[in-house]
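Q&A FORM
Asked by: J.P.
Topic: structure of Abi-like protein

PROVIDED:
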Amino acid sequence: MADKDFKTIDEQIEILRSRGLSIEEEAEAKDFLLRNNYCRVSGWPTKPT
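REPLIED BY: S.T.
REPLY: Here is the structure written out as tokens.
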């Protein structure tokens, strides 16, 4: 698996927006991303825990 570069919260929000996610409250989105894994939000397949 290739290494991926670290993305800031702002960069993650821009990626999500570029993929069609509507974000009305940016402060809430930042708080959510600080508490949750980006993969959970993006729908990236992960192994079940």
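FOLLOW-UP: The first helix runs from residue 9 to 18.
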